[in-house]
Design goal:
single chain, about 230 residues, alpha/beta, Rossmann fold, 2 domains, seven-stranded mixed β-sheet, 7 strands, elongated, binds S-adenosylmethionine
Length: about 230
Amino acid sequence: MDDMERKLTKPKLDDRMMSAASFVNRGDVVADVGTDHGYLPIYLILSGIIPFAVASDIREGPLGRARKNARKYGVDQKMKFELSDGLAFLEDGCPVDDIIICGMGGETIISIIEASDYPKKNGVRLILQPMTKAFELREYLYSGGFEIMDEMLSESGGKIYSCMLTRYTGKSRSVSFAAKMLGEKNIENRSNLFERYALSIRDRIRKQVRGMEKGGGSSAELKERLKEIEEIT
Ligand SMILES: C[S@@+](CC[C@H](N)C(=O)[O-])C[C@H]1O[C@@H](n2cnc3c(N)ncnc32)[C@H](O)[C@@H]1O
């Protein structure tokens, strides 16, 4: 690729990563935690959405990939690379507006948020896209004083994922099982992927109820929860 081509092209993001990109405010400084290939911050810089990004990863291999890709696309001068577990690098005076944590399990995302006070700073927004355990992540956010400002569904590799835009308010909320399972904003937004998302969750719970009944356990509580989901689907 010559210099001209390099400047004109940008990495193609799949819909999952695009959902995270769409939550970034123009002009924000972004930290992409667990960046791996680095495509998300590279895309945001090349699209003129952000001026600067910090790309971090816990492993040298992925961070090296991000560095190499940033050089390839000519944006390495607009990025900083941090070898770091979670948000530890933010403690050393590296101010950012948006923290993106995408493509990890919900439990890992929770442990990363929990280990730092940075997400609680005024003005800081978290863009979170769990590959698993979205219920547990929403439960953690609601009970921990984070507001889920919006959610967006996307499909990648035949699966539907939800990306959450959140910020700390200090006010915890208790919400319904359905809101934690499906996402209050997803229920409100009713995007074209919502029906499939809700039906797959409903079927998963139905299977759990059947399993419990077969095993002779009490399924009454789970059946109540299933009813909540069925009323929405
Ligand atoms: C599956 S990749 C996701 C890459 C990219 N964010 C995406 O959504 O496509 C997960 C990345 O997170 C990194 N990772 C896992 N735990 C981490 C942690 N505690 N702190 C920083 N990075 C972490 C891994 O090394 C890996 O590169």
